[in-house]
Design brief:
Length: 142
């Protein structure tokens, strides 16, 4: 019985790749940060979420809707982003995993919202992160 229990803890539910993109823009309209995550499973299903800040002092946004994988089997929801990092939930087979992703060098990005209206800015930060989720609810970033 103990061997069966140990083996079930070691069963991999799936592997995913998350592509993260943050774009900071300043224009005549104001300052805006756009956050986008794309997930792709090892089975080929894709899901994505997006949220945007507009002149937010906290530079944060949330999106609570769900995006179901193109092949089914999982969905992502509850995207929460602050400054240069995002958390979101990946839900599969009744299990919920909280995942994190963000920029490697946040100090290189300009978040000053108080520039003159004629000052423009367009900056990007991209990151790719691979991870595996296990039956015992552990997340292993690889």
């Amino acid at each position: 019985m103990i061997i069966f229990y140990v083996l079930t803890l070691l069963i991999q539910l799936g592997a995913w790749t998350v592509d993260f993109q943050l774009t900071n823009e300043r224009s005549q309209i104001g300052f805006q940060s756009n956050f986008k995550i794309n997930t792709v499973s090892d089975m080929g299903g894709k899901a994505e979420m997006f949220c945007s800040t507009v002149d937010s002092v906290e530079q944060s946004c949330e999106k609570s809707t769900k995006d179901k994988s193109t092949q089914g089997g999982y969905h992502i929801e509850n995207l929460k982003c602050v400054k240069t990092n995002c958390d979101f939930e990946l839900v599969t087979e009744g299990q919920r995993f909280i995942l994190e992703i963000g920029c490697d060098n946040p100090e290189e990005l300009d978040f000053d919202t108080f520039y003159p209206w004629y000052s423009s800015l367009n900056q990007n930060c991209k990151k790719r992160r691979d991870f595996i989720v296990w039956l015992d609810r552990n997340v292993e970033y690889i």
